[in-house]
What does this fold into?
Amino acid sequence: MSAIALYARLTPGFAERLAQTLAMLESAASTHAGAIVQATSLGAEDMVLTDLIARHALPVLIATLETGQLHRETTDLITTITRHYGLAVEVYRPQAEAVLQFVATQGEAPMFRSLALRKACCNLRKMEPLARMLSGHQAWITGLRREQSQARGGVPFQEIDDAGRVKLNPLADWTWADVWHYIDRHKVPYNPLHDQFMPSIGCAPCTRPIAVGEDFRAGRWWWEDSSKECGLHVKTETDSMIGASA
Ligand code: SF4
It folds into this structure.
């Protein structure tokens, strides 16, 4: 059964949430003209945001991280966005030399051996390229939602990140039903892995389908008893969640 059939529902307040999200995007695009980027994880939430940006011709750059460990279905979405919307997607990859060295010393799948090695891999493949992506921008847009996990329960619509940039989370109060209702209504392209019980999709080695009743992010780093975060949305001074859905 498709994710649309499973999750898409029109629920009370959807029109208001959508209008608020669009107003937020329009205001941010105008305030930070030329210096605002959507850091898309290519997940369902981020595809909704990309659709809104494209549909309303907002001057927001679209960029993504290609960690070198993504599913083919995920990387295919990069060309799908360009084909479907006529939008270029800036792709940020880890430093090739650093990856080669890490793999040579730690092996192909060090993330399963310890939390420290998993975080080292995320730093190398995600955090460093993200820093390059955000460099020179005043603001960035994510697909974080409060409903995604307990750790994300307090996600604000807008915050200031560690580097002093504005971080916008325009879908903070959207439900999973809202996301799929929007995708269904606007025929938004999405990752077919969502149809295989993967609500949250990251790197291939670190993502598995979830079972009925499991948490939304239970399929991410499932072998760990951790906060299910890679660091992209964690503030360093508190080491707690502040904010992709990534
Ligand atoms: S999610 Fe897994 S493969 Fe991807 S960067 Fe983190 S540890 Fe490495």
Observations:
- The first helix runs from residue 3 to 7.
